[in-house]
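Feature request, filed as a ticket because there's no other form

It would be nice if the structure record came with a short human-readable summary line next to the tokens. Right now we just get the raw output. Example of a typical job, pasted below so the devs can see what we mean:
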Amino acid sequence: MDKNLDDKIIESYTGLAKDNRASRMPAVLDYLQSATGLFLALFMIAHMFFVSTILIGDGYVMYRVTKMFELDFIFEGGCPLVVSVIAFVVFAIFILHAFLAMRKFPINYRQFLRFKTHKNMLRHGDTTYWGLQACTGFALFFLGSVHLYIMMTQPQTIGPVGSSFRFVHQHFWLLYIVLLFAVELHGSIGLYRLAVKWGWFEAKTPQQTLKRLRGFKWFLSVFFIALGLLTYAAYVKKGLSLDSNTDYMHYEYTEYKK
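Raw output as currently delivered:
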């Protein structure tokens, strides 16, 4: 039998690599999970600021931001394909992160009961955070996939009018309200847990560090959920002002192309 195959079989049963050393693969996968999670969390912070530009100038600022991402300073009128490529890259990282995170999910009733008992016995906030992050992550796997697929296949519909039309007349308002809470809670908890895990922003004592990081986590959650709700309301308001037969691409061009 092939020697490499023998090593893999032994590692799979014992967790030990050759020469009786602990396998480094769990640490590598953990590092990749942290790196992809950090990228997605920072991307979502930037994404929220971008979409919230609909609150400024009755959509004109968002229109200009959209065209900037379409590289209209290079391609006349913009190239939506650029947005498709960005969405594809984010989608690939999103799937990789979900695949890596699934390693730590309870996979049967016994594991779920063990986690629930552990959480109730400890009554520790970080354990509760982990459970909430697992639940929101599970929801995001479905909700985020729908959103990213739309962005990847219909980039020309991104904009103050097209997005508002999708909110109201294509009934995405229900998906987006659940997605808003799931992504903001998942992202803020994720950043908090990354900071604790890797020792970022440490204070003089562990207690001071946790207090600081938890305060920052709550600030992120409240701030971005509040900003998201205001943005959500702006999309709904604009969507309600549109007719169901609106040619939103022509509308945007004539309204904002000045």
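Something like this underneath would help us a lot:
The chain has one domain: 36-256.
The domain at 36-256 is CATH 1.20.1300.10 (3 helical TM bundles of succinate and fumarate reductases).
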